[in-house]
Write a structure and sequence with these properties.
The chain is an alpha/beta fold. Helices cover 27% and strands 21% of the residues. The strands form two sheets. Strands 1, 2, 11, 12, 13, 14, 15, 16 and 17 form a nine-stranded mixed beta sheet that branches. Helix 7 links the parallel strand 7 and strand 8. Helix 2 crosses helix 3, helix 5 packs across helix 6 and helix 8 packs parallel to helix 9. The chain is elongated, with a radius of gyration of 22 Å.
Length: 413
């Protein structure tokens, strides 16, 4: 029998989990036939995580910092480590503690621009974190004060987060963090006397489909560096690297890397180090969730997971995911149609319009595997309405494909 575990939405890691052996991992269909799960079944593909990480690490001309918030599951982190990731972008003491517990030799970077004073002290003293991001004079003063107050020596690294103009990424991230160019230059000047390493960072937005966005952002960072007239040791280009979803064409990773390399070369900083913070791009394809149909109403399916569970992005953000029907007892219809989903809670906002293409005879009791959920899937689960339980298992399957939508799709009434 395959190993699986049950975790509530916010249960912490309390022990080191054994590493699953690839040759022993089951297939999703076999698991569904055996378990007939009535709770969501999260399927993690360690081989996919590792291979994707290895590809990115090989392609990127610098240090790859995995954005832990995207999926902090220990099995995922272990697979990424096996794929060559040695740097981790953490945003909280809990993420830092988890990574340090699993990988004592990891390079951990505290990349949240706003931090509690206690979090700074804990990161510096207990976990050996030396790099911190900031985007204001107040945060600079806070970090320097807290680090000095610990009395623990170490080479401090500070990275100034630069705000970018609103871009064309699917999820624009320009509104919450980042200093305007003039302020960023002043921050670089103010931070330089306190640090062994000084950097500048930005984020082009999540799921960015335009390679030139990185070139433009790097050029703006170069203007800030020139205005500051101080030595900069790190250029952190953030994340935003896209993945394939149904009906979404993405640029090749090589095209994005070419713009990044050329833009970085134009800065004329031969001694500076390049960083990136991929999250979605490393883990989306390695995760899926199996849900069960509890009722059908026309072209809407009531399922046992939803926007308060692992399908948050399918709600307000209207993300579409590849999906397939699993019916161990028999064949499904060869003809497919688009369906929407209602989640299990009593909230009428728990709806995912899709469309998700499935056999037209799908019915109560069938299972659906929904793919590309390794990113921001299980980690966004809540306990709302009591629907907070899910099984998690490592599997050997390949990722689900993300097919194109029909050109003239219209959902039936």
């Amino acid at each position: 029998m395959s190993q699986f575990r049950v975790r509530n939405a916010v249960s912490p890691l309390r022990r080191r989990l054994p590493e699953a052996q690839p040759e022993a991992l089951p297939q999703v269909d076999a698991l569904v036939a055996e378990l007939r799960p009535e709770e969501p079944l999260h399927c993690l593909r360690p081989a996919v995580f590792a291979a994707t990480a290895a590809e990115f690490v090989a392609a990127f001309p610098g240090d790859t910092l995995y954005a832990v918030k995207c999926n902090p599951d220990p099995a995922v982190l272990r697979a990424l480590w096996n794929g060559g990731v040695r740097h981790f972008d953490c945003a909280s003491p809990a993420e830092i503690a988890l990574v340090r517990q699993m990988f004592p030799a990891a390079e951990i970077h505290f990349m949240h621009p706003i931090k509690a004073r206690g979090a700074i002290r804990e990161a510096w003293m207990r976990h050996g974190v030396r790099d911190f991001v900031l985007d204001s004079m107040a945060e600079l003063a806070k970090i320097v004060e807290e680090v000095e107050a610990t009395g623990v020596d170490g080479q401090l690294g500070l990275v100034v987060r630069l705000a970018l103009p609103k871009g064309e990424a699917v999820l624009d991230l320009s509104g919450k963090f980042g200093a305007a160019p003039k302020e960023a230059a002043a921050l670089l000047c103010a931070a330089r006397p306190h640090v062994a390493r000084l950097g500048i960072a930005f984020h082009v937005g999540s799921q960015c489909l335009e390679p030139l966005a990185w070139r433009r952002a790097i050029a703006l960072a170069g203007e800030v560096i020139q205005a500051a007239r101080v030595r900069v040791d790190i250029v952190d280009i953030g994340g935003g690297f896209p993945v394939v979803y149904p009906d979404v064409e993405i640029p090749a990773l090589g095209a994005i890397m070419a713009e990044i390399e050329d833009g970085f070369d134009r800065l004329g900083l031969p001694d500076a180090r390049l960083w990136a913070e991929p999250g979605r791009a490393l883990v989306a394809g390695g995760g899926s969730v199996v849900v069960q149909v509890q009722a059908r109403r026309g072209d809407m399916l009531f399922i046992n997971d939803g926007v308060y569970g692992s399908l948050a992005d399918a709600g307000a953000l209207a993300f579409r995911y590849p999906a397939r029907c699993i019916r161990p007892a028999g064949e499904t219809s060869a003809t497919s149609r688009g369906f929407g989903f209602f989640g299990p809670t009593c909230d009428s906002a728990d709806v995912m319009q899709g469309p998700f293409f499935l056999p037209e005879d799908i019915a109560e009791g069938d299972w659906i595997e929904i793919g590309q959920l390794g990113a921001y899937g299980a980690c966004l689960r809540t306990g709302f309405n009591g629907f907070d339980r899910a099984r998690m298992v490592e599997v050997a399957d390949a990722p689900l494909d993300a097919p194109a939508l029909p050109v003239a799709y219209t959902r039936a009434a």
